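User: I've been going back and forth on whether these two constructs are worth ordering. Before I decide, could you fold them both?

Assistant: Sure. I'll take them in the order you sent them. The first construct and its structure tokens:
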Amino acid sequence: MTASTMEQQTPAVRESVSYWNRQRRIGVGLAAAGVVSAVLFGALATGQQAQFTLAETISGSKFGLPGHVGAIVFGLIAAVAGGAMMVASRRWFGWLLGLGIVCVLVSFLCWQVSQAPNNLNTMPLGNVARSSVTLALPLILGSLAGVLCERSAVINVAIEGQFLMGAFAAAMFATLAASVWAGIIAASIGGLLIAALLAVLSIRYLVDQVVLGIVLNVFALGLTGFLYEQLMAQDQTRYNQPTRVPQWEVPGLSEIPILGPALFKGNIFVYGAIVLVIVVHIGLFYTRWGLRTRSVGEHPAAADTVGVKVLGLRYRNVLVGGLIAGFGGAYFTLLSTTNFNKNMTSGLGFVALAALIFGRWSPIGSLLASLFFGFTSALAFSLGSIGSSIPSQFLNMLPYVATIVAVAGLVGRVRAPAADGKPYIKG
């Protein structure tokens, strides 16, 4: 709403608009969701125990409560959190929103777990946490690549293509060299090639960046599909049988309930993602390179006047982003599976782009958003394993529905870097 529009309104209207701000509207929605959860999930849940364990298997120490009681209690707590959000100060907004969402989720789980057969009515939270981190790995790496590009004012819609090239190169060269490390290096180079095309065509030749990203995705899909048919499909043993990346366990830390197995019983992708998030965050907000990158993304002309080489910086950041996204592509063939298939990334490059937006173009925000999407996928798998009454087709939709809800409903008003997607022509 513009200032001129506000001036034309009566004081009563302006007061009404200011009262029903985003925090209060979300509070009303959260309170309504809590009431619906208490009534609906409480009515559908059974009196059977809904049990949970902190371990990775159902053999650990269990705790729980009757399903219908848990569904009602946690639903009401969510409703109270929504009501408190309407009157609390802004500093409590995030805490109350998080509490309410968690309580709605627990209410839902009490309903689902209580309906499972007696031998399945236990959900291992440690396994859900570990699966959430594992499934979030390509999203973390892809969104980091997007952060580097878009903070430099280059829109990277080609993350999907970089994933595909990385996955194909990792499978092929890891098999030929009998080394997962050769596969990881090749995957990064595969992502770099797509990034190089993105950089040259968007920065040097000023091609529309969104259209270019879609074209590069189609190019990567066609190229990897053609090479798969010509090479891998003809001789899987020679070209498409890479080994899985090794797992490294951190003694002591891996025994921490829930978080230990998820973060400290990992592999090169887990530890690499953690290190890269920290490095990019520190670099972007606490170094000269980061200051220059952000200035190029916000006002390239002003950056140019103080001596920043705008185009050179954009080239470097886009290429580094391609290396990271290609590394993320290796996840699909060296960890998730042990062979390459056509279009195996299944649109996760676009989910990584959504995580970038949901995370407000920051490394930490992108990490949290990616973990959120990874959790929804892990939850879908866990509900399927306990014989959920929800049809499997709807469970498979859950990560993508969560993506739409998060970006459209929870992210609020966010602003991309001011120069994002705008070519720079030096005067």
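The second construct, handled the same way:
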Amino acid sequence: MYAFELVRPKSLADASAALARSGGKALAGGQSLISTMKLRLAAPGTLVDLSQLPELKGIRKEGGAITIGALTTHAQVAESEVVQNALPALAALAHGIGDRQVRNMGTIGGSIAHADPAACYPAAIVGLGATIQTTKRSIAADDFFKHMFETALDDGEIVVSVTFPIPKKAGYVKFPNPASRFALVGVFVAQTQTGVRAAVTGAASCVFRSKELEGALTKSFTPEAAKSATVSASGLNNDLHASAEYRAHLIPVIAARAVAAAG
């Protein structure tokens, strides 16, 4: 890695100021950013360590929603009784991320800010219509993820928390890469208060909602309906792991399993 300065602010205001002053990067769990730096795909001159900021941590249920602090680890989400009882699909998703080290170090805020196209959390955020709270504003899930490793976050803007509406039903299943555990295709389906949502990760340059799946599941929220949907291969990833056509075939198959998991 290249040389860099490490800054450890004691407040969120100090963290925002440090990022604005240095033009550096925020460091959460480090599971994405440090790996990128080791490969010399990123070389920030300053890292602003957020780990000492308690206001970015914790899980709470308020009315019909669950709010999760940005520095809450995947393991904490997976093991939370609040999440397990109110939103078990999200707990199961978190439990399936990476390995134990990744789950105990990686954070929900770091994951979504990094916006890896094969990450699991983006599917839950878009699939549930979550809201991302930052140091500047609230961002709707459908407006947050823009492209591969690109989000709506401005320079120096920090994710503070994510609020998930509690759905009537929800399920997530992924077809994992056996080495990385990232999704070759992952599908999150949900019956929400405003209708059916179906989000796909791993299949394209960015998480996306599948109108084909949503249309089929609106008529009948069943595995059979999901499996009957036809998804186009146009615009899907075509790489050494899977062809675009294979991913298009997998999406309704994985969606059917997600609906079955939703119960």
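Notes on the second construct follow. The two ends are 47 Å apart (CA to CA). The chain is about 35% helix and 25% strand.
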